[in-house]
Amino acid sequence: MKRWIGVILAAVLAGVVVIAVVAGNRGSEVPQPTVARGVIGSEKKPFFDDPQVKAAFAEHGLRVEVNTAGSRQIATDVDLSRYAFAFPSSAPAAEKIKRDRKATVTFSPFY
Question: How many other β-carbons are positioned within 10 Å of the β-carbon of residue 107?
Fold first, then answer.
């Protein structure tokens, strides 16, 4: 008799676990990646178009979209308020952007 009670309780517990897992997964959607838009020097475009780079960003929940422009143009003519980041080719353009935008934190991922 005690044996059957243990078997019945185990079956009930297994059923509860299955119901909890199914109910917990209901309505859960795959999270959408965060879109980061940037303006970059045109020579960096192949890097951002590389499938491995896109996959690396996706692993971190990002989809990066870029527009290209010349460094001087990025620093003087582009409306940077439309972008999350600017990545010009030249240091003088980067310094001008940093000064104009009063950026306190900058990153130089590569040269």
Answer: 7
